[in-house]
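User: Predict the complex with heme C.
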Amino acid sequence: MKKIAFLVGLMCATSIFAADGETLFKVCATCHGAKAEKSALNKSQVIAGWDAAKITAALNGYKDGTYGGPLKGTMAPQVKNLDANAIATLAKYIEGLK
Ligand code: HEC
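Assistant: Here is the predicted structure with heme C placed in the model:
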């Protein structure tokens, strides 16, 4: 019994730390659209259709200040707390949006 409780606890903890792409993208969707089909704030490029490598490069660039247009200040706080793992998960998720 104890062992089962432990396993269930472990599974819950895992799902919190390893958030899936859909969960991570929820906040992004408020600007980019549920399918990444919108131009965020009418300023960004439409990122639907971008491959994971391009998305990863853009997100890392916003993070370290080497990428972006006039509104990069809007994106910087969005990516600030994303680690490499979360960025990879997001990039894959966005790439797969149809
Ligand atoms: C508050 C609105 C907002 C939110 C939330 C937001 N973005 Fe953005 N995003 C923008 C804007 C505006 C730009 C264009 C910024 C610029 O001038 O470079 C942009 C640009 C981008 C780009 C590059 C597109 C380009 O035009 O070069 C990617 C990729 C991207 N966002 C992904 C994301 C992801 C992933 C998230 C969630 C973690 C997110 N965004 C959350 C507003 C937002």
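The chain has a mean pLDDT of 90.
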